[in-house]
Design brief:
It is a single chain. The longest helix is centred in the C-terminal third of the chain and has 21 residues. Helix content is 48%, strand content 12%. The chain is globular, with a radius of gyration of 28 Å. The chain is of the alpha/beta class and 687 residues long. The protein is built from 29 helices and 19 strands. It folds into four domains: 257 residues, 2-enoyl-CoA Hydratase, Chain A, domain 1, CATH 3.90.226; 176 residues, NAD(P)-binding Rossmann-like Domain (Rossmann fold); 113 residues, N-(1-d-carboxylethyl)-l-norvaline Dehydrogenase, domain 2 (Orthogonal Bundle), CATH 1.10.1040.10; 77 residues, N-(1-d-carboxylethyl)-l-norvaline Dehydrogenase, domain 2 (Orthogonal Bundle), CATH 1.10.1040. The protein has an eight-stranded mixed sheet with strand order 12-11-10-13-14-15-16-17, with helices on both faces. A six-stranded mixed sheet has the order 1-2-3-4-6-9, sandwiched between helices. The protein has a three-stranded mixed sheet with strand order 5-7-8. Helix 28 packs across helix 29. The structure holds acetoacetyl-coenzyme A. The site of acetoacetyl-coenzyme A has 23 residues, from helix 2, strand 5 and helix 4.
Length: 687
């Protein structure tokens, strides 16, 4: 037997254990090893049945995703597991698949080739391939509808969400749940099954009635706008009801390969690995001490402070929340209460659980709890002097070893750290609004930030259910520094004559979750305006700056919170164009002598997206981002950049870096030196 597969006979049953940690992916050698073990069991007079089970923490988590890149690059032949699965199904002794952890993708496909499936109560099964821009590629779209019906299978394959064991049992995907020891339970199940005739899933017909999938298609077109794989998955499942099994598999294979070789799949696989790579920081390893964060104290109970407090409470960490006035404190506590109420209304939390979490909040006017907290978080207004004063205060309150985190989105971490006597304990924790919802946490290291403070922050991000990305200190860090260039182009475009709704629609149709001007309204136009005031002294004569947003802010049009900004908002915060805005923009353009014309959709996309890429390349060159993939993860998780386009840097690579340089020059800009270098070299940013 190969090292990846163990074979043993227990109680007259052959037990085939897959040992390919950490997740038992179907790497080269695993399918071959399973097949050899099944053939050995078939010939083994000591075995009346077979159990296939995963060693370690899970059953098979799918095909080995690392292999896909090699296939697409032509270094490896195309994947085909069809014959291997039919060989399992054709085994003359019953094969029982024993599932714990996750049977995902190719894992569920292997499980469905068995004659029976049993599972531990906590197991999950699913076909999540669409999240990688592909569809099931080993008969998943053909066997799953034979077990659970066309409608449910189409849903599972198109949306990619796994289902729990109880639901899978009810749906017919599983045959039994095993309480207690899975291995022993599966062996007992297999012994009983040995006496009965086993059915092959591929021969089942009873659940194959066609279903109306229009509703699902509409849902996919809305929720997964622009993506090919979910619609291909529906087509493949539909084929199961129309074609014989072998033809259905051939149809699935054709769609699978189309998807695998697409840019969308390259982009989504890049994001899958990227989310895991960003956790790896050079110089920080498992030996770096990580502090236990058992209590948090937050100063500032505005939108950000309240959102951050909610995120901590959700992670089970008690929070002391400080404000200067009783009114502000009560308003902040009210925001947090509403966050929990809304979670209860949406069915995400029980009322009891919401009450339990809320009971861990201690509002204070007197800094109670700040001396015992393991982390003190500052979430006051974006003003350097105020932040420095706040940190000087926190320094007097915090116990030795406590982390002092600032939620600044643009300001100099070193200047803030300099207001304390312990700059090594100071770090940026830049949350994105709403802080309890958005997945991104930009972790900003200052000049003196100590390694354990970074390591603790990275661990804490996971506890807060965030993707933590470590970045360096500069104005706006990674996300907002790039966003500034992107937004500048959006405002220039409206000053030149494109309507705000035209600019936003161009980018939303392209795949951005929200256009830049609508984002401005959501975040508050006053925030950018205040920041621009802060940095006004750095403006240079003869350089064009975006002004239309400042005019809106001066008129009190702060965005959603005042009911009007770039748009007009109704009570449900739905936006609509505001004719008044056109006049304000025209006026701003006239003041600056900007000629009015009619920029088209292509120009909107070129200027905004290339501004992002060019600034991203500069950030990379300066070492502010560790890798290009870190920038992509920031943009996908914090700025609504479509994952299926890979993030700005991967998108540029997929477009081709030489062409990107040319397009930047066509706009009359200078491409970043790193961009030019990579365009002339490997054609990609990361090694
Ligand atoms: N292939 C290769 N590597 C994989 C992998 C896979 N299918 N699944 C996980 N890994 C790797 C991760 O990259 C990670 O590696 P590092 O430690 O080097 O960073 C390691 O395994 C552990 O993964 P996680 O950190 O994600 O562990 P987790 O416990 O948080 O989550 C999981 C486990 C739920 C299985 C999650 O890893 C996951 O969702 N994996 C992908 C599952 C999937 O999409 N399967 C379908 C594959 S496509 C397919 O199967 C096509 C087909 O039809 C034949």
């Amino acid at each position: 037997m190969s090292e990846l597969i163990r074979y043993a006979v227990e109680d007259g049953v052959a037990v085939v254990t897959i040992e390919n940690p950490p997740v038992n992916a179907l790497s080269p050698g695993v399918p071959e090893g399973i097949q050899a073990a099944i053939e050995r069991a078939e010939a083994d007079p000591a075995a009346c049945a077979v159990v296939v089970i995963g060693g370690g923490r899970t059953f098979i988590a799918g095909a080995d995703i690392r292999e896909f890149g090699k296939i697409v690059a032509g270094e490896k032949p195309r994947l085909s597991l069809y014959g291997f699965l039919e060989r399992i199904e054709d085994c003359r002794k019953p094969v029982v698949m024993a599932i714990h952890g996750t049977a995902l993708g190719g894992g569920l496909e292997v499980a469905m080739a068995g004659h029976y499936r049993v599972a531990a109560a906590g197991a999950q099964v699913g076909q999540p391939e669409v999240k990688l821009g592909i569809i099931p590629g080993a008969a998943g779209t053909q066997r799953l509808p034979r077990l659970c019906g066309v409608a449910r299978a189409a849903r599972m394959c198109a949306l990619g969400e796994p289902v729990g064991a109880a639901e899978a049992l009810e749906a017919g995907i599983l045959d039994a749940l095993i309480e207690g020891d899975l291995r022993a339970g599966a062996i007992a199940f297999a012994r009983e099954a040995a006496g009965r005739p086993a059915r092959k899933v591929r021969e089942r017909q009873e659940k194959l009635a066609p279903a109306d999938l229009q509703g699902l298609r509409a849902q996919v077109e809305k929720r997964m706008r622009g993506q090919r794989a979910p619609l291909a998955a529906i087509e493949a499942v539909e084929a199961a009801a129309k074609l014989i099994f072998a033809e259905g598999c051939a149809f699935e294979a054709k769609l699978f390969n189309e998807c695998l070789f697409s840019s969308q799949s390259k982009a989504l696989i890049h994001i899958f690995f990227g989310e895991r790579i960003v956790g790896k920081v050079p110089g920080i390893d498992k030996d770096t001490p990580v502090a236990n964060i058992a209590a948090c104290a937050i100063v500032g109970a505005g939108t950000m402070g309240a959102g951050i407090a909610t995120a901590y409470l959700n992670a089970g960490i008690p929070v002391a929340l400080q404000e200067a006035s009783p009114e502000a404190l009560e308003a902040g506590a009210g925001r947090i209460r509403r966050n929990f109420e809304s979670a209860v209304e949406k069915g995400r939390l029980t009322p009891d659980e919401a009450a339990r979490r809320l009971s861990m909040l201690k509002p204070t006017l007197e800094w109670e709890g700040f001396g015992t907290a393991d982390i003190l978080v500052e979430a006051v207004y974006e003003n350097l002097e105020l932040k420095k004063q706040t940190f000087a205060r926190l320094d007097t309150l915090a116990k030795p070893g406590a982390i002092l985190a600032t939620n600044t989105s643009t300001l100099d971490i070193d200047a803030i750290a300099g207001a304390t006597g312990r700059p090594e304990q100071v770090i940026g924790h830049h949350f994105f609004s709403p802080a309890h919802v958005m997945r991104l946490l930009e972790i900003v290291r200052g000049r003196s930030t100590a390694a354990p403070v970074i390591a603790t922050s990275m661990e804490l991000a996971k506890r807060l259910k965030k993707v933590g990305v470590l970045v360096g200190n500069c104005r706006g860090f990674v996300g907002n520094r790039m966003f500034h260039e992107y937004m500048t182009q959006a405002v220039f475009l409206v000053e030149e004559g494109a309507a705000p709704e035209f600019v936003d629609a161009a980018l939303e149709d392209w795949g951005m979750a929200m256009g830049p001007l609508a984002v401005g309204d959501l975040a508050g136009i006053d925030v950018g305006w205040r920041i621009r005031q802060e940095f006004k002294h750095l403006e240079q004569p003869g350089v064009r700056y975006p002004r239309a947003g400042d005019r809106l802010a001066e008129l009190g049009r702060y965005g959603q919170k005042t009911g009007k900004g770039w748009y007009l908002y109704d009570a449900d915060r739905r936006r609509q164009p505001d004719p008044e805005v056109a006049g304000i923009i025209e006026e701003a353009a006239r003041e600056q002598g900007v000629a009015r014309r009619n920029p088209g959709r292509e120009e909107v996309l070129e200027r905004t997206l290339l501004a992002l890429v060019n600034e991203g390349a500069r950030i990379l060159e300066e070492g502010i981002a560790l890798r290009a993939v870190d920038i992509d993860i920031i943009y996908v998780n914090g700025y609504g950049f479509p994952a299926w386009r890979g993030g700005p840097m991967k998108w540029a690579e997929l477009e081709g870096l030489p062409g990107i340089c040319e397009r930047i020059r066509t706009l009359g800009w200078e491409p970043a030196p790193l961009l030019v270098e990579r365009a002339g070299g490997a054609g990609r940013f990361d090694a």
